[in-house]
Amino acid sequence: MIWVLLGVPLAVGAGLAVCGQRTDRVAAPVGVAAASVTLGLAVGAAVLRPSASAPLFIGIRAGFAVDGLSAVLVVTVAAVTVAVLVFAAADIGAGEARSRFFGIMLVFAGAMVVTVTATGLAVLLMGWEVMGATSWALIGFWWHDRRRVEAGTTAFVTTRAGDIGLYMAAGAAVAGGAGSLQLDALPRLGSPWLDVVTAGVVAAALGKSAQLPFSFWLSRAMEGPSPVSALLHSATMVAAGAYLLLRLHPLLAASGWGQPVVAWVGAATAVALGLVAVAQRDLKQLLAASTCAQIGFMVLAAGAGGVAAGTAQLVAHAAVKSLLFLAAGAWLSALGTKQLAALAGAGRRYRLVGVTFTAGVLALAGIPPLSLWATKDTVLAAALARDPGLYAAGLAAAVISAVYSIRAARLIWLPAPVEGNAAYDTERPGTRRVGPLMAAPLVPLAAAAVGLGVYALPAVTAAFERTVATRGEPGPPGWSLGLSAGLAFAAAAATWRLTGRARMPAAVTATLGGWLGLEAAAHMVVVRPTLRAAGALARFDDDVVDGAVRRLAAAAVGSAGVAARVGEVGVDDVVAGVASGARRLGRIARRPQTGLVHQYYAQAAAVLVVLVAIMVLVG
User: Quick check: 368 and 488 in contact, CB under 8 A?
Assistant: First the structure.
C-alpha cells in the first residue's frame, strides 16, 4: 500500500509535468483526482500503518513506514494538497501552463510524503532534495519575469546552504558506524560523530523552515503563485524542517546541546519574525513572516521535548495558513492587489472570503477556543517545563501573533478606500469576482481552523499523544491557559482599536518591513565575500596558474627550438665533417692504388727506408 501512496502523486505529477501543453485541458481534473486518491490512501495508511523497504545501496535499504507521527503528517499533507489544487483549478488560467503547474505541485507534495515516511537518512535526503528543486520551479513558475526567477533562485540557494548539513550528517553517520543511515540509529553514535550529525541536522532543518538566520528566503518565495504559497507554507517545505526536528528529537536529546540551541532559535524566530509581520504592508508578506514565527513555536517544541505539542501545532497551522493564503489569493485574483491598504473593504465586498479569512486570523491570533490557542498552550507548557525563559519568550511571541493577526482582520473590514488613494501592485489584473470553485476550499479549511480547538480537551490531547507515540508531556496549567487567553484578548482589542489610527516610527517600519535586513546581511557576510573570493581565485587561476603553464609551455617551445638549431648546426655539421673527412681520406687512400707494379715496389722501398730510419733513431 505504501508504494501506491508514494507512487500516485509522484507518477501522475511527473507525467503531467512532462506532457506539457498537450494535457493542459485535463491537467486540473487529473491533478485534483490524483490528490484525492492520495488523500484516501493516506487515510488508509494512517489506519493500517504499512511499511516497506527495498535494496538501495550495499548496506543501505530504502525504507518507508507509516508510524504515529508520519500518519498524522501524510493525512495533513494530502488534505491540504487537495484543497490547494481545487483552488488552483480556478486560479491558474488556461494559458498559464496548467499541466506543468499541476504536475510540479503533485511532485512537490509527493516528495513531502516521501520525506515524512522515510525511515533512513538516504531516502529522506532524496525527498528533501526533490522538494527543494520543485519549490524553485514553482516560485519562479512565471519564468518570463526575471524578478520571480531571481526570487526562486534566492530561495533555492539559501535552503541549499542549510541542506549541506544533511550531507555532512550522512557522512558523519557512516564514519561513526551507522552505515545503514537508519534514523533510529543516529542517537546511538559516539562522540564526535554524534555532535557532527546533530549540527548537520539542525542546520538543514533551520534552513528549510526559514528560521533565523535563514528567514529571508521565505519573503522572496512570495513571488510565486498563491496556491504555491499556500502549499509551501502550510503542510510542506517549511513544515519539513520542523518535522525533521520532531522526528529526530532523540538525537537532539542525546547530543546534550541540541535541545537548548533548537529551542532558543525557535523562540527567537517566533518573537523577531512576529515583529516583522506586524510591520508588513503586503498581505502575503505578513503571512510569510507569520509562518516563520509560527514554525518557531514548532521548533521551540522540538527543543523543549514537546513532540506531540509541536506536531499538533504543525497540523493546526497547516489548516490555518493554507486557508489564509488561499483567501489572500482569492482577493489577489479578484482585486489585483495584495497590499493591505488596497484591501480595505475586501471583507465586506467578498463576504465568504472575509468571514473565512477572519476565522483563520482569529485562530492565528490564539483566540480561545480556536485551534492555535489550544496547540500553542501545549507548546508553552513544554517550554515552561524546560526553562521559564523559554516560556516568557513564547508568551511574548503569542501576544505579538495576536497583534499582526488582528491588524490584518481589521484592515480588510475597514471601509473601502477612496479610488486612487490606495496602493495597488501590478502582479495581475483583477477579475472582480471570486468563483465558487475558488471559494470551495475555504469553508472546510475554516472549519478545521476552528474545530481543531478540541485539542484543548484533555482526552483529545491524551489520544493525540498516544497516536504520535509520546508519553508524559506536560499539560498547560490552568493559570497559563488563562494568562495566554487574557493577553490574546487584550492585544487583539488594543490592535483593533489602534489599527488605522496609529503608525509605527519610520525607522522601525523600515527595519522590520525589510525583514530585519537579513538578506542584505547575507549578501554582505556570505555572498559578496564568496564572490570576491571566487573572483580572486579566478584571477589567480588565470594569472598565476595559467600564466605559469603558458610560460612553461613557451620555455618548452624555446628549448625545442634551441635543440633543433643545435641539432641542425652542431651535430649535423660534425656528421657532415666526418663524412667529408672520410671521403678525403678515401681519395688519398686510393691514390697509391694505381695498378702499376713498379710503383708498388717503389712505395714498399720507401716504407722500408722509413722503418729502418725509425729503428736506427730509436735504437
Answer: yes
With a cut of 80, say whether residue 472 has pLDDT above it: no
Question: SS3 letters for 343-400?
Answer: CCCHHHHCHHHHHHHHHHHHHHCCCCCCHHHHHHHHHHHHHHHHCHHHHHHHHHHHHH
Grid cell 516583522 in the structure block, residue: 276
Per the DSSP assignment, residues forming a β-bridge with 120 are: 182
**Alpha-carbon Rg for the chain in angstroms:** 38
| DSSP state for residue 526 in the 8-state scheme | I
Q: Which three-class secondary structure state does DSSP give residue 41?
A: helix
State the Cα–Cα distance between residues 240 and 545, nearest whole angstrom: 44
Q: pLDDT tens digits, residue range 381-395?
A: 999 999 999 999 999
The C-alpha cell that represents 576 in the structure block: 657532415
pLDDT reported for residue 420 = 46
CA–CA dist 341, 283 (Å, integer) = 9
Q: Which residues pair with 52 in a beta bridge?
A: 64
Average pLDDT of the residues in 165-175: 95
CA nearest neighbour of 214 among 260, 140, 280, 164: 164
Q: What is the model's pLDDT at position 506?
A: 77
**Alpha carbon distance 343, 335 (integer Å):** 8
Task: Give the max Cα distance, the chain.
Answer: 149
**Backbone phi and psi for residue 53, each to the nearest 5 degrees, phi listed first:** -155, 160
C-alpha cell at 233: 507554507
Q: 529 or 592, which is more confident?
A: 529
Kindly report whether the peptide bond that precedes residue 505 is cis, defined as omega within 30 degrees of 0.
no
Please name which of 491, 507, 487, 508 lies closest in space to residue 499, comparing C-alpha atoms: 491
| Per-residue pLDDT reduced to its tens digit, 247-260 | 999 999 999 999 99
For 484-504, letters b (16+ CB in 10 Å) and e give: bbebbeebbeebeeebeeeee
pLDDT of residue 546: 81
Among candidate residues 162, 2, 80, the one with its CA nearest the CA of residue 522: 162
- The tens digit of pLDDT for each residue in 105-162 reads 999 999 999 999 999 999 999 999 999 999 999 999 988 889 999 999 999 999 999 9
The DSSP output letter for 183 is G
Q: What is the DSSP letter of 282?
A: B
524 contacts: CB under 8 Å, gap ≥ 6: none
Question: Each residue of 449-462: pLDDT tens digit?
Answer: 999 999 999 999 99
- Report residue 598's pLDDT band, with 50, 70 and 90 as the boundaries: low
Q: How far apart are the first and last CA of the chain?
A: 122
Confidence at residue 421, expressed as pLDDT on a 0 to 100 scale: 45
For 263, the grid coordinates are: 529551542
218 close to 282: Cβ distance less than 8 angstroms: no
Handedness of CA 357, 361, 364, 367 (dihedral sign): negative
